[in-house]
Design a protein that fits this description.
β1 (about 5-10), α1 (about 10-25) and β2 (about 30) form a beta-alpha-beta unit. The relative contact order is 0.26. This protein has helices spanning about 10-25, 35-45, 60-65, and strands spanning about 5-10, 30, 50. The protein is α/β, with parallel strands linked by helices and about 70 residues long. α2 packs parallel to α3 (about 60-65).
């Protein structure tokens, strides 16, 4: 079974570059455009790895990490 990675990034170009690199490496990738979108997904389907932007509107990457535990 492939390991899962959740990528949270509000800049579409950056998100696409990271997604392409991670999926090419063989990981199952899920993406979200913000912490508010990622929080329920993070709780319902915890990924093996969470990659997040730190500065995002509404919920920052640090808030996402602290609310996910």
């Amino acid at each position: 079974m492939r390991k899962s990675v959740l990528i949270v990034e509000n800049e579409p170009n950056v998100l696409n570059i990271i997604k392409e690199a991670i999926s090419t490496a063989g990981f199952q990738v899920t993406t979200c455009k913000g912490g508010d979108e990622a929080l329920p997904l993070r709780k319902s389907h915890p990924p093996d790895l969470l990659l997040t932007d730190l500065r995002m509107p509404r919920i920052s990457g640090l808030e996402l990490l602290s609310k996910s535990t």
